[in-house]
């Protein structure tokens, strides 16, 4: 499953990265086993400040999901943390880097269910597609 769906638009400024696209919904699959996608608009400031804060109310408690992003060399590391109701914990890390051929490589890491086990890593690769009208 691709980290940002089948396609997305990424806009980078000197201070942040914004992703507009679709992500798999909470249920993952809908009727007939088809993947369910929901619109996604997320901005990740490069300075490590909290962004994309969302609240989930479940079983009488409120949890916050918070993203932070920072550069590690040429790789942008986006960390998603859950807070509230339980001790804070990292639920995923996204490592975004550009391959020399222009391919965007997104490595999605999720923690193990059993303490001490290795993190699960799924890698997605995206190629830029020019969608501007052709000129003849």
Descriptors:
136 residues, mainly beta, six-stranded antiparallel sheet, 9 strands, globular
List the uncertain runs.
none
Q: What amount of the residues lies in strands?
A: over 45%
| Total number of helices | 0
What is the succession of H and E elements? Answer: EEEEEEEEE
Helical/strand content category = mainly beta
What is the helical fraction, as a range of percent? under 10%
Strand order of the largest sheet: 4-5-6-7-8-9
Got a strand count? 9
Mind describing the biggest β-sheet? 6 strands, antiparallel
Which radius of gyration do the C-alpha atoms yield?
17 Å
Estimate the global geometry from the Cα principal axes.
globular
Mean pLDDT: 81
Brief summary of the model shown:
Helix content is 0%, strand content 64%. By secondary structure, it is an all-beta fold. The strands form 2 sheets. A 6-stranded antiparallel sheet has the order 4-5-6-7-8-9, with no helix packed on it. The protein has a 3-stranded antiparallel sheet with strand order 1-2-3, with no helix packed on it.
Folded structure, characterized:
- This protein is mainly β and 136 residues long.
- The protein has strands spanning 8-12, 16-29, 35-45, 51-58, 61-72, 75-84, 86-98, 104-110, 120-126.
- Strand 6 and strand 7 (86-98) form a beta hairpin.
């Amino acid at each position: 499953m691709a980290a940002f769906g089948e396609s997305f638009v990424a806009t980078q400024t000197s201070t942040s990265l914004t992703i507009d696209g679709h992500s798999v919904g909470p249920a993952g699959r809908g009727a007939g086993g088809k993947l369910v996608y929901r619109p996604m608009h997320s901005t990740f400031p490069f300075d490590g400040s909290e962004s994309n804060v969302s609240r989930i109310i479940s079983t009488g408690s409120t949890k916050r999901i918070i993203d932070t992003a920072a550069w590690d060399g040429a790789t942008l590391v986006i960390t998603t943390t859950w807070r509230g109701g339980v001790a804070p914990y990292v639920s995923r890390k996204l490592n975004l880097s550009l391959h020399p051929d222009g391919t965007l490589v997104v490595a999605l890491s999720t923690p193990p269910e059993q303490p001490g086990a290795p993190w699960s890593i799924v890698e997605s690769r995206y190629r830029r597609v020019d969608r501007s009208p052709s000129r003849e």
